[in-house]
Amino acid sequence: MKTNQYSGFHKLTMEQRAAEVAEFSGLTEEEIGRLTNPGALTNEVADHVIENVIGTYQLPVGVAMNFLINGKEYVIPMVLEEASVVAAASNAAKMARAAGGFTTSYTGNIMIAQVQCIGVANPYFARQNILHHKEEILAIANEKDPVLVKLTGGAKDLEVRIVDSQIGPMVVTHLLVDTGDAMGANAVNTMAEAVAPTIEKLTGGTVKLRILSNLADHRLARATATFTKEAIGGEDVVDGVVAAYAFAAADPYRAATSNKGIMNGIDPVVVATGNDWRGMEAGVHSYCSRGDHYTSLTRWEKDADGNLTGSIELPTPVGLVGGATKIHPAAQACVKILGVKTAAELAQVIAAVGLAQNFAAMRALATDGIQKGHMKLHARNLATVAGATPEQLDAVVAKMVADKKVSVDYAKEILAGMQ
Ligand code: NAD
């Protein structure tokens, strides 16, 4: 295929879909095989990834279509187990296209490493003493990663905070490191350990923890999109989404589920590209908790023309070098499908997918309710579990949905009736 707008893509066979994606992304037969053939991650490789390995575990890879981000078409590989997410993302991306798709920006690949120092008699004086010696501290950090220094400049700045705690004030130094196309956890942790003796000398205190912060608020990706009222079903839908958003913004119980819906889009891309989804989750949820209560990651507003506008801003501790990205053969194929060349581009795609996924859920909730779309896909899973063959599947699903009885037992009953 030449474009990611492909009418009836879901009706193709798995082999046909894979061939279309391979053509779009320029994947070789060997590369697409890493996704289409089970066992791409061999036991030999897996045994070196974690400890006490006994085997591997597979999940489906789907592709979300229709995404237009900063004028470029993307096919988005998504690895997850939940039905209806990929379809919802594709549908949302299609609706966003009416007003030009998604626009994104990025604050840079800056990760934070924290150095905790306790037992300091005069913490405010010590704070300034650390800042007076900024260049010396950055130089010590940078000695640890000449590769990174050559690529990005490495450690670039310091912040020093006084954190009050139950064991007294702590002097917490943040090393701000440009980790380039790496997520950077290992890189910044090494630097934090290296500067610890100097921090102790400058403060008279004792350094304890030296570790990256997942609240990567110097590595923010942003995305916006306008959904025209015509494209999404009228001004009532616009108002419905804005009201749904107001609920999430005001109430942590609702925000938790709204943000879970956003992570439905984000985590599958993070996993597909071999990135650390726990780090991503920790970053997002801590970012949503900076104010006086946990709140929505997105904002939804009505513009002067009555259209719906959405925006998202989130920490994106993700990369394309290091971690599992370069080890997992399927992750490499997914990165090629995505067509991203830098961590910055990956972060911005992730932001756009999160915004799209949130829109899809908000629109469904504000109109038909979430179950209508979900049930059809859920019915497919249940019909398969009940033993429907590919030829029988559509008929069994149609009957379950029409009769509003979506269960394995009813699928079995329908199948028995068909024989
Ligand atoms: P890494 O250490 O494997 O690779 C990064 C290094 O690669 C850099 O230090 C640099 O020397 C080199 N490099 C080569 N080309 C580069 C380029 N173009 N841009 C940047 N660096 C380049 O990987 P990492 O990103 O430091 O570590 C990521 C892993 O750390 C993840 O798997 C994550 O799960 C894990 N981790 C996470 C946490 C956390 O989130 N809190 C903590 C510890 C470890």
Can you describe what's shown?
The two termini are 39 Å apart. α1 packs across α2, α6 crosses α8 and α11 packs antiparallel against α12. The longest helix has 24 residues. The strands form three sheets. The chain has a four-stranded antiparallel beta sheet. It has 17 helices and ten strands. It has 419 residues and is of the alpha+beta class. It is 49% helix and 19% strand. Bound molecules: nicotinamide-adenine-dinucleotide (NAD). The site of nicotinamide-adenine-dinucleotide (NAD) has 22 residues, from α7 and α8.
How are the elements arranged and paired?
Elements (H helix, E strand, L loop, with lengths): L13 H12 L3 H8 L6 H4 L14 E9 L2 E8 L5 H12 L5 E5 L3 E9 L4 H10 L1 H10 L2 H7 L2 E9 L6 E9 L6 H19 L2 E8 L6 E8 L1 H4 L2 H16 L1 H21 L4 H11 L10 E5 L5 E8 L13 H10 L4 H24 L4 H15 L4 H13 L5 H11 L1
Antiparallel strand pairs: 1-2, 3-8, 4-6, 4-7, 5-6, 8-10, 9-10
Helix pairs in contact: 1-2, 2-13, 4-14, 6-8, 10-11, 10-14, 11-12, 11-14, 15-16, 16-17
This protein binds nicotinamide-adenine-dinucleotide (NAD).
Quote the distance from N terminus to C terminus. Answer: 39 Å
Instruction: Specify the helix fraction band.
Output: 40-55%
Biggest sheet strand order reads: 3-8-10-9
Give the ligands present.
Answer: nicotinamide-adenine-dinucleotide
- Provide mean pLDDT, rounded: 96
* Low-pLDDT stretches: none
The chain-level structural class is: alpha+beta
Computed over alpha carbons, the radius of gyration is 24 Å
Summarize the structure in short.
With 419 residues, the protein is an alpha+beta fold. It contains 17 helices and 10 strands. Strand 9 and strand 10 (308-315) form a beta hairpin.
